[in-house]
């Protein structure tokens, strides 16, 4: 019997989660971070960066569907899509379900993450060979500066913010560059942490995004892979509204492939508990 | 420096959570279960039964607001309310915020839980001396048989289901007795576990409730105190609809006291992800 156990501490180190490991599949120290992949009895394959769970096979669909389909079904006709981060491939898999999409750029800073996903995470990296997808391994905060008025959808699927490299995807300058890189009908989503353990970063990220974009709305989902099991993203645009401009008819094109997202969930995800509204100063 | 750590295993024993303990406040073995109360740096006081977290000061408001206010704001004028379980007092605290309420019976099988809550959990047990509240320490599945056509609202705030005592609050017979004990306009809510770790019980409980009541709807919330951080309850009634008969105007009476629940959250909580719909066989 195998008793190997993975432990993950939450911010502040006063709480955390653990899970049993059946097998270590891979471990490396890349230029940017420590990468590990485990086989587990409870969650299937688990992929971690610097000891924090990024992706679990059992329920990664929730995070990836929510970061992707909420903005994608608001845009009337998304063709050019940029994903910053998203190295496991789950977000590009969801983006490529939309029949209107012609070109997807996935800009993941760490080529080791892409290679590990390709080898060990087939359920998320399954579209890496899709001819519509271009994978670029460089710093997303630099790449974004090369584009003006080009992308219909920009998705920021980053790691947790830190004072270092990860923090560059949470600055007001970066969000301004995203704004510039988007078309007039452009829409945007970004992971903005959770409202229990990461109050400070949620607030910072949401406030910075709302300083830059004309429309900005926090939305939420049930995401067990990230303690405490609640996650937020921020939708933003130059004018499109997440409810009024939402086009649920288009969901029918691939509704049987969706395990979490649907029309009611889209609308419900924008309903915020009072303590979350207070956190981001909305009445 | 204190390194005491509490560990809680999820069902199946392949994953779990842990948190640091500053101080053991109380521990006892009652007739029914082991009861512990800890002081923690992350979650304030934590109250556990048989090693499972029941209540944490930091975020118990979410579970208690959702199990209470969803049914209470659907009933046009709730006067007589029955809570089965709910020994920590959080549910009775929320029920007693409604100005129409005249009598609340809280039927908690374990008198030790009530005594521990009174002494160590002042933020949830704060209404134990309210003259509108009657606390009865007996088996709820027996007490319910004494009432016919009496309660406007019945709330089942039980522990996790088991094959033993806790399981009696999840049987079809018990739900039938609840139906009989309710008035024509009566409404009902029950905790029905989570859709990740407790799929089997969620399904069983929801199906049994929907076999008995004319109207039954699962609803969900972000509840970090119970891994995996998502929780469900089931609303049921003899005829009232959770959306059409919802009366949001009445929230104004004490909206400043609500930290989670609001009009949008009420409606949004009934939106179910596709995998949850599938679990309970609804299209």
TrEMBL record, chains A, B:
Positions that bind spermidine: 64, 88, 157-160
Pathway the protein takes part in: Amine and polyamine biosynthesis; spermidine biosynthesis; spermidine from putrescine: step 1/1
Enzyme class: transferase
Keyword Transferase assigned: yes
GO molecular function: spermidine synthase activity
GO biological process annotation, one example: spermidine biosynthetic process
Keyword Calcium: no
Residues annotated to bind S-methyl-5'-thioadenosine: 33, 108, 139-140
Subunit relationships: Homodimer or homotetramer.
Family: Belongs to the spermidine/spermine synthase family.
Function field: Catalyzes the irreversible transfer of a propylamine group from the amino donor S-adenosylmethioninamine (decarboxy-AdoMet) to putrescine (1,4-diaminobutane) to yield spermidine.
Protein name: Polyamine aminopropyltransferase
The species this protein was found in: Tepiditoga spiralis
Organism phylogeny: Bacteria, Thermotogati, Thermotogota, Thermotogae, Petrotogales
Gene encoding the protein: speE
